[in-house]
Amino acid sequence: MPAVDKLLLEEALQDSPQTRSLLSVFEEDAGTLTDYTNQLLQAMQRVYGAQNEMCLATQQLSKQLLAYEKQVT
To answer: Which part of the chain is the BAR domain (predicted)?
Structure first.
């Protein structure tokens, strides 16, 4: 992994091309990370929803089987 340039606070106050470049890279990385975490959140919400649906379906199946067992016996 290449070395990462650091942007010192004193340098951030200056309007140099290097500062603009580092800020641009930071903004781009922050945007990419935000997109990634939003996609991860959406995927996890889908998994959570699927787990809840599976739980409800399993409970319903259990109730149906118990009702059937009571009718048969």
So the answer is: 7-71
Reported as a single tens digit per residue, the pLDDT across 34-59 is: 999 999 999 999 999 999 999 999 99
The count of structural domains within the chain is 1
pLDDT at residue 1 in the model? 56
**Burial of 67 per CB tally in 10 Å (0-12, 13-18, 19+):** exposed
CA distance 23 to 38: 22
Domain-located, residue 6: no
Residue 25: other Cβ atoms inside 10 A? 13
Is the pTM above the cut of 0.70?
no
Give the structural domain span for 50.
Answer: 20-72
